[in-house]
């Protein structure tokens, strides 16, 4: 059935995060799912699998906590496969945009060797023609995961649903991503600092900056913590300082991971006309 583009939602970034926080307080299992995603992400090559599998559970639990109704009766395995498929589709779209952008930038840059001012234009084209389109598409397709897990959409339909529902609400999606991303990065820095890992690039030893081999290792670990944030976690390649750090960051980072997944579920329902009506009394 055709889906009309969603109208701009009356609930902005603050409203989405507030509803997500309500879901977290209503069902602690959502937080546990977030902690599991972060903890499993420290295991090489596991995070890419753990995110859709366990993150989908957080989405489903959020939907049930706020709407009071179960998600689709489609099997969890099929929903997980759809979510993974949607992730692959989104990645293919993003890579296609990047390749097209590089082709344009490369063409302009080649001409720039003959007419140097065009080199500056090539940089501008690179920003406008690659970064902004990829960011916009990523925001429009950010809701593919809840589409697969809440409504049981197939991979391609999940991508289509996300594109439709995020239409007119891109600013809200961006705002939620920025808030959860910044909070996640701050949490990573604070936990790293609490366990004796200095902030990247600022190793203080005796009141002066020092970059010994030992301190460079600490910088590397701290940079790893920044790279591995609760939102969009990636495989960790650096050595983890201690089990205490693992536990501390998994709990704190898991909070913002859970908030991010819950926000996806809220936005998916909120950006649908029927979803707005259903959630109005929550």
Can you characterise this structure?
The protein is an all-alpha fold and 282 residues long. The chain contains eleven helices and two strands; from the N terminus they run H-H-H-H-H-H-H-H-E-E-H-H-H. It has a two-stranded antiparallel sheet. Helix 4 runs antiparallel to helix 5 and helix 4 packs across helix 7. The radius of gyration is 21 Å and the shape is globular. The two termini are 28 Å apart. The C terminus is likely disordered. Pfam families: DUF7847. InterPro entries: DUF7847. Keywords: Membrane, Transmembrane, Transmembrane helix.
Rounded Rg: 21 Å
Q: Extract low-pLDDT stretches.
A: 199-240, 274-282
Beta-strand content: under 5%
Secondary structure tally: strands: 2
> Which structural class is indicated by helix and strand composition?
mainly alpha
Q: How far apart are the termini?
A: 28 Å
Average residue-wise pLDDT? 76
The major sheet is characterized as: 2 strands, antiparallel
Question: SSE string, helix = H, strand = E?
Answer: HHHHHHHHEEHHH
Major sheet: order of its strands? 1-2
Helical content stands at: over 70%
